[in-house]
């Protein structure tokens, strides 16, 4: 069985990294050793795990099925090593954060770096779907997401809540006001985020409840693009207060009573929530 474990680890590394060369680097062993161990696995069980074409490899159907089993096996092995490291009196290692919003993620990263100076923090940014995929693949340890619904395999708690503000150009009539009423939106040209955006969902839902019709003139899939469109005079937009960037002669405007807000949640895999470092982050920073 010990021999099979080494062979399976080499198979997993090739499947995970996409080539024998990078698999060897990943395992810190020679490429011939990786090749021999994968071939041994194929020979003993009389199955082809990879289609080889020059320097490229592609998993066969059998390889794909084996990879789905091997992936959590070796990711959990890595998790076990991380757990053992966390028992050391002096915390060391790497902690990986995935997020959609740079401002909210960097705020947490900064605070964690101050609290845990011996840990190397890596913060990366993806779409919400990709962030959750990376959580499930054990590529990140914790995520910060602006979602309200989560699957059963995920553990979440509220991290921060920020009001949604309007963003206008400095020559817009609202720029002279400290705050405006929600009903004033009916007279404005609105630039919205793409469908599915939590900012857009919040704005549209509250406006629908109050029978406020929005005159949407443009949809864009990035906050930066909306800022530039507003600067060009195309209309007004919306953003979480923490995500507003003081640029391009733009100004944030609050709504009376803060009718809508974005809720950012810390998220991890249920099976990892009791890992020491993850548990401490939830304990110190969640507000649930």
From TrEMBL:
Alphabetically sorted, this entry's keywords are:
DNA-binding, Transcription, Transcription regulation
Tell me a Gene Ontology molecular-function term this record carries: DNA-binding transcription factor activity
Which PROSITE patterns does UniProt cross-reference here? Answer: HTH_LYSR (PS50931)
Residues covered by the HTH lysR-type domain: 6-60
Q: Which Pfam families match?
A: HTH_1, LysR_substrate
List the Gene3D superfamilies hit by this protein, alphabetically: 3.40.190.290, Winged helix-like DNA-binding domain superfamily/Winged helix DNA-binding domain (1.10.10.10)
Which protein family is named in the record?
Belongs to the LysR transcriptional regulatory family.
Annotated protein name in UniProt = LysR family transcriptional regulator
Q: Which organism is it from?
A: Acinetobacter equi
List the top taxonomic levels of the source. Bacteria, Pseudomonadati, Pseudomonadota, Gammaproteobacteria, Moraxellales
């Amino acid at each position: 069985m010990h021999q099979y474990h080494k062979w399976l680890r080499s198979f997993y590394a090739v499947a995970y990294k996409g080539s024998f060369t990078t698999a060897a680097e990943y395992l810190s062993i020679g490429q011939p050793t990786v090749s021999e161990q994968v071939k041994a696995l194929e020979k003993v069980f009389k199955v082809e795990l990879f289609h080889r074409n020059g320097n490229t490899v592609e998993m066969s159907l059998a390889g794909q099925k084996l990879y789905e089993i091997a992936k959590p096996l070796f990711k959990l092995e890595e998790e076990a090593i991380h757990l053992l490291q966390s028992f050391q009196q002096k915390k060391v290692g790497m902690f990986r954060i995935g997020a959609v919003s740079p401002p909210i993620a960097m705020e947490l990263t900064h605070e964690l770096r101050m609290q845990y100076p011996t840990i190397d923090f890596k913060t990366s940014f993806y779409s919400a779907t990709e962030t959750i995929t990376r959580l499930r693949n054990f590529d990140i340890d914790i995520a910060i997401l602006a979602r309200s619904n989560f699957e059963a395999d995920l553990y979440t708690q509220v991290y921060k809540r920020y009001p949604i503000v309007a963003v206008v150009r400095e020559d817009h009539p609202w720029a002279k006001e400290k705050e405006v009423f929600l009903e004033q939106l009916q007279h404005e040209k609105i630039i919205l985020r793409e469908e599915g955006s939590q900012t857009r969902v919040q704005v549209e839902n509250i406006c629908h409840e109050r029978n406020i019709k929005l005159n949407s003139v443009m949809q864009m899939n990035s906050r930066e693009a909306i800022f530039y469109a507003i600067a060009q005079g195309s209309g007004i937009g919306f953003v979480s207060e923490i995500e507003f960037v003081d640029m391009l002669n733009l100004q944030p405007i609050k709504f009376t009573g803060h009718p809508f807000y974005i809720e950012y949640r810390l998220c991890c895999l249920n099976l990892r929530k009791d890992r020491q470092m993850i548990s401490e982050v939830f304990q110190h920073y969640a507000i649930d």
